[in-house]
Hints:
CATH class of the largest domain in chain A: Mainly Beta
Strand content of chain A: 15-25%
Shape of chain A: elongated
Number of helices of chain A: 10
Largest interface: A-B, 25 and 25 residues
InterPro entries (chains A, B): cNMP-bd_dom, cNMP-bd_dom_sf, RmlC-like_jellyroll
CATH superfamily of the largest domain in chain A: Jelly Rolls
Order of helices and strands of chain A: HHEEEEEEHEEHHHHHHH
Number of domains of chain A: 2
Largest sheet of chain A: 4 strands, antiparallel
Radius of gyration of chain A: 18 Å
Protein name (chains A, B): Crp/Fnr family transcriptional regulator
Organism (chains A, B): Niastella soli
Distance between the termini of chain A: 49 Å
Strand order of the largest sheet of chain A: 1-8-3-6
Oligomer: homodimer
Structural class of chain A: alpha+beta
Amino acid sequence: MTTGFDTYIRSRISLDDAAIEQIVSAAKAISxxxxxxxxxxxxxxxxxVFIVKGLLRIYGIGADGSEHILHFAPxxxxxxxxxxxxxxxxxQFTIATVERSEVLLxxxxxxDRLLQEIPELNMLSGQLVASSxxxxxxxxxxxxxxxxxxxxEDFVRSYPDLLARLPLHMIAAYLGISLKTLxxxxxxxxxx
Amino acid sequence: MTTGFDTYIRSRISLDDAAIEQIVSAAKAISxxxxxxxxxxxxxxxxxVFIVKGLLRIYGIGADGSEHILHFAPxxxxxxxxxxxxxxxxxQFTIATVERSEVLLxxxxxxDRLLQEIPELNMLSGQLVASSxxxxxxxxxxxxxxxxxxxxEDFVRSYPDLLARLPLHMIAAYLGISLKTLxxxxxxxxxx
DNA sequence: GGAAAATGTGGTCATTTGACCATAATTCAA
DNA sequence: TTGAATTATGGTCAAATGACCACATTTTCC
Lengths: 192, 192
């Protein structure tokens, strides 16, 4: 069965069919409902998660109980809390679905074994760490320096595809502004 | 001569004296005035910089021309724009001193050669990438979720030593609030 | 298909924040 | 040491934002 994972992995590292089969068969495939939690804040991130289909979000809870989203992870991406995963320490963040999703899970011991047996797999981790998606520097700068309107425009430019799949309140939780402010500035833009 | 760099490097990787001497002699030692620019936004980050003494800041310029600080780098830390350095592409950020500082510089080709000749050096890069100082996730979350007052308290808790060395307007530029707001909340805290 | 939940928009109001300006205090550098 | 630059604080005001609420619409899921 082709899961999309095959395509993903072949496009980044060259492996023979046997190796890929080995990797895939070490994973557990899971179907998730909308708004289902995969990793609860305070728990240890014990799996690597690859999103075959659907959309996940990684968020933290503020002091006032509100949700602040750090990442969206759509299909053909990974969702982990790297710190919690690598140190097997409690995570400060929660990972949950936005839509119904299909994911592949590798328990850490299993994935570690794969890394030993298929050294090329290490390339992936390196790429991931270096990738902008896991480097929040640019995002931090935008958050520090931009007005709500600029943040929104930036988001639309960066993730036009996500725009249609996300309720507005999640976009607001991602941008760090209130739903009210987001509605307001969208309305203002229409007029121009 | 002991520069503090010796101590730093010995505490993370074990190298013999010859190797350390080789590393140090590949560096150029520089003294910098207060508020002197090492890397200008738009330029390519051609060096690795180690701060022996003093304090640097890494910042970006917002659309309105204001300064937004991503990091402070005090003695015994590195200051680079990783992206610009590794890809030798123009940096979006500026690196400048806060105080008079003494730094060690390695031109990228020289450092690359060192990495080949002294493989243990690679460990350092790995540690750096993994270190919280270069992982902006926690910082991003605080910026998204906290009030100005909470951000300031968080800063005081995290970097009590820097507090005395930084003008308030730079702390404001780091927290993403105005100098006015910072003064106000400090004054309010005194009253309690 | 239909009930229940989630979502988007609007109104109002209080509060927070920033912009601008002046001034005193402090620090810097020659 | 002294003049110049930087820094900290305060006043005032306008604008932006969030909190709270209601309501219409859409979507979800059994």
